[in-house]
Design goal:
The protein has 4 helices and 12 strands, in the order ββββββββααβαβαββ. By secondary structure, the protein is of the alpha+beta class. A hairpin with a 5-residue loop joins strand 6 and strand 7.
Length: about 270
């Protein structure tokens, strides 16, 4: 998999995508590409790929996973080193504790977990170093159209609806694993004080392939699958959820009626 593409800076607190720069530990100045696939107040995922900086050419290449949490209000992102994918001899995973600036262009902070660690300094941009196959295969990819932490509540409050990227395979109503993080963020959002008493519409949609009646039934099943997940995983009361299906009557991409983006669930703020 290729590294995730950098997102637009129109959302200055969005951190999903690649960050490139350096960090310093016992081996000296070290090049780094940090690819962030998810960032919410309860879960963050990233791949830490380090390599030689031209000013310190003896540093080897390696990579490991990272997990943590992100506060979009303050811009603080904490990441803890996880599993090695490519480990040079004698190296340890490290941990980051830093902040994204108000413009969403720099991520800086402290490094810990290994001898003589000091600081890191990263900015958005393409990686200058091609990752080894072991690292590239495991590179987390940011799901296109994914709503970042804190944006679900804002979207519902401002627009009254949000078209989530909760995707389904063709002719299926089973939620795909790559959509679970988005659904979890929705569940957490619905439990916030601002929304905990509101009723929510869950509207299912399909692509335009196939029989209209079958698509209508499938869209209802997809909306019901999302409602069932929210009830099971977050204890959302069934009376708060208005489940409906619209089949292929409201395509997200009318110009591409068979696209998987049309197989989705829309969340609407009611009352």
């Amino acid at each position: 998999m290729a590294p995730a593409a950098a997102q637009s800076t129109s959302d200055p607190r969005s951190v999903v995508g690649p960050w490139v720069g350096t960090y310093v530990c016992a081996q000296g100045l070290t090049g780094l590409t940090l690819s962030i696939a998810e960032a919410t107040p309860t879960q963050a995922r990233a791949l830490f790929h380090f390599y030689a900086d031209p000013r310190n050419p003896r540093v080897p290449t390696g990579c490991f996973t990272m997990t943590g949490q992100y506060d979009p209000a303050s811009g603080r992102l904490q990441l803890k080193g996880g599993d090695w994918l490519l480990k040079p001899g004698g190296y340890r995973v490290v941990h980051f504790d830093g902040h994204v600036d108000a413009e969403g262009r720099r991520f800086t902070g402290k490094v810990s977990g290994a001898p003589a660690c000091k600081q890191f300094d990263l900015a958005r941009g393409p990686s200058p170093a091609m990752p080894p196959a072991t690292c590239a295969i495991a590179m987390p990819v940011a799901q296109a159209d994914l709503q970042d932490a804190g944006r679900l509540g804002d979207a519902l409050a401002n627009a009254g609806r949000v078209d989530l990227n909760i995707l389904f395979d063709f002719a299926q109503a089973t939620i795909r694993p790559d959509s679970v993080p988005q659904l979890d963020e929705l569940g957490r959002t619905l439990l916030t004080p601002a929304l905990s008493a509101r009723r929510i519409g869950i509207h299912g949609h399909t692509d335009a392939v196939g029989n209209a009646d079958a698509n209508l039934q499938l869209s209802r099943q997809r909306a019901a699958a999302v409602a069932a997940y929210l009830q099971r995983a977050f204890g959302i009361a069934s009376q708060r959820l208005d489940v409906q299906g619209f089949g292929k009557t409201r395509l997200k991409q009318p110009g591409n009626p068979g696209a998987e983006a049309n197989r989705r669930v829309e969340i609407v703020l009611l009352e």
